[in-house]
Amino acid sequence: MYVSMKEMLLHAHENNYAVMAINCVNMEQAKAIIQAASEEHSAVIINISPRQMKAHGHGDILAPMIRNMAEKVPVPVAFNLDHGATYEDITKAMEYGFSSVMIDSSSCEFEENVRRTQMIASLAHGKGLSCEAELGHVGQASQADNDKMDLYTNVEQAKEFVERTGCDCLAVAIGTAHGSYPEGFVPKLDFQRLKELKERLAMPLVLHGGSGAGEENIRKVVACGINKINVCTDLFKHARKAMADALEENPNIDYMDLCMAAQNAMKDFIKDYMRLIGSSGRYIFEKYDGPELD
């Protein structure tokens, strides 16, 4: 099923679990993600950022391909623009057939963030799409130091923000960061702030920078109210290692077989992560008469 993020995240919010949002730039990743979701009876969100879309995974190619795959499985699949910063990038994603968009104006002053988010949320809802926004600032993991609490999401400000913008879910800053953390570094997360945000907003909350945060932190953020977890770096690393291992085992491996090795490894990683965050088994169908994804 090809759907927006809205209903699946409301279901996760009401039932206290999280949905993976996985960055994807090619067919192998898309197949791994959707097959994993189907086998785990889990909803899933496929993400792509404007940078990734411009560099490799062109949206006009990926959107119809993902929709075609999603319509062959009996679980909800959304395709979301991750960290859309410009009006042009976001409207292009809508034209390509994305089912959801994120407007990230978190680096702007509060009023400008509100203004931009209001505009995109209204536009998205008019097209039947969902809209994610961000308040606070999730930085880069390479610069993580556990001491940048002034960038964390303010609870009272967040309440005003969601009321004025009408966004469907909110990405909050509680101590995670994008990319790879320095070796041995484990982020210290503000769980109390997360609990207060969940209680005050009573809506689906999003964690960006899920890679490298550690299983204990991931379990706890879900327990405290996170309903969407973005994963990119960990999956990319997993795919790269699978390909390196396959090449080491057989230096003459065929390119297609190399791609399939990465795909199978990614699928296993995703299935394990879905079990970790509680999304597995949420969509059980006694009978499914639709086409199957090979």
Summarize the structure.
The chain is an alpha/beta fold and 294 residues long.
Keywords:
alpha/beta; globular; 11 helices; 294 residues; 48% helix
Helix content: 40-55%
Could you give the order of strands across the largest sheet?
1-2-3-4-5-6-7-8
* Main beta-sheet strand count, sense and barrel state: 8 strands, parallel, barrel
What is the strand content? Answer: 5-15%
Write the topology of this structure.
Layout: H1 5-15, E1 19-23, H2 27-40, E2 44-48, H3 50-55, H4 59-70, E3 77-84, H5 87-96, E4 100-103, H6 110-126, E5 130-135, H7 155-165, E6 169-172, H8 191-201, E7 205-207, H9 215-224, E8 226-231, H10 233-249, H11 255-277
What does this structure look like?
This protein is an alpha/beta fold and 294 residues long. It is 48% helix and 14% strand. It contains 11 helices and 8 strands. It has helices at 5-15, 27-40, 50-55, 59-70, 87-96, 110-126, 155-165, 191-201, 215-224, 233-249, 255-277; strands at residues 19-23, 44-48, 77-84, 100-103, 130-135, 169-172, 205-207, 226-231. The chain has an 8-stranded parallel β-barrel, surrounded by 9 helices. Strand 3 (77-84), helix 5 (87-96) and strand 4 (100-103) form a beta-alpha-beta unit. Helix 4 packs across helix 5. The relative contact order is 0.17. The model is unreliable at 140-144 (pLDDT under 50).
